[in-house]
Please model this.
Amino acid sequence: MLKRLSWRYRLLLAPLARRSYRVLAIESSCDDSCVALLEKSLPNHPPIVIDHVKLTLDSSHIGGIMPTMAHDFHNESIAQLISDFSKKHNINAKTPPDLICCTRGPGMVGSLNSSLQVAKGLSVAWNVPLIGVHHMLGHILVSQLPKKEQPSLKSPAYPYLSLLCSGGHSILVLSKSISSHEIIIDLCDIAAGDAIDKCARELGLKGNLLGKELEKYVSEIPQSTKDVFGKVNTSSSANEFGLSFALPLRGPRNKKIPDSIIFTFAPFLSRVQHYISTNNGIDEAQKQFLAYKIQNTIFDHIVDRVNVALKKHGISKSENPLADGKFDGVVDFICSGGVAANKSLRDKLANNLNNERTLETKFNFHFPDLSLCTDNAVMIGVAGIEIFENLRIKSDLKILPIRKWPLNELLTQSGWEKVPDEEYHSITKSS
Ligand code: ZN
Model:
């Protein structure tokens, strides 16, 4: 009798208890077709990644991503990828996911649209809500997931800073909540990853992931040679290599801080091109020196600009009287995006960003696992879940891809609608 009562009691309570729900996520904003399955259960806990897959367009033979090629690639691959993935995880009309998250922007419109139209179709067919996710929000929020190399690190807490660096974007963002973001450092020309790829191509490196090839090439230069390279002053061309490779923007002089702080990476490429053309090609020693300088100086520029931002906005006026205090309360610093996967950049940030800070206020650096730094669908699922649970909104079926979508305009785009309480509770089964 007691057993029966207890069972009935549990049944009565079951609709109020939180259950786990499944999220299918899709991303195709650039040259990666990605699908992921996540499971969300406990509130205030990150979701569990069940699986994720990725197909990357091979554009090594043409030396860059052509939007039309990427569009065709996604149109050809994404539906099949989702179909195979769904079969593997028993996702179908009888056992659909509870939520579909898909990148809406920013990115190449054709590429974004390939996934968005499939996602809309699945949302209609399975009658599950659709979340059109901001790609950069995904790069930020993926840092909530447990990290293999930083297992004891807690999820970042607002307010926090995010350095997002890849082939398509390079920005520093201050986030105060899921819907409050301010771009602290913006990009004025090509992104860091784009500059690195193009410089690597000028050096004659081959492959689809040229940034990785450059990192590998530099890592194979003997340490004794790198020690010598490190001592060569390239602030002018008066050195044994005749190479001028200074930082494109200088730090604040005479306590003057620029009104707007920017990243600029195009000058690195033009210097490499100029050096190679004026030398009529390069020998192996010059190639090694250039490779070493490209990687180090680009990363030095990133660190230099972030340090200017720290000087301007500070963590605390007591530590830096010149600061306006905008960064007060910031403890967590996220570094995400394809370029953030580079260990040399991670080391430079960890070692050089705290110059003017006391030990007590050191940043907690969050470096997402390498597979989650580059574009992936997991981050889209994580961000979609946050939007669904914390803002209780979803996308309507009329949404279009957005090529340029500033992160500080997350909610001002059309296409958001409130999730009815009944629908929200039927998915989360929360009371
Ligand atoms: Zn990205």
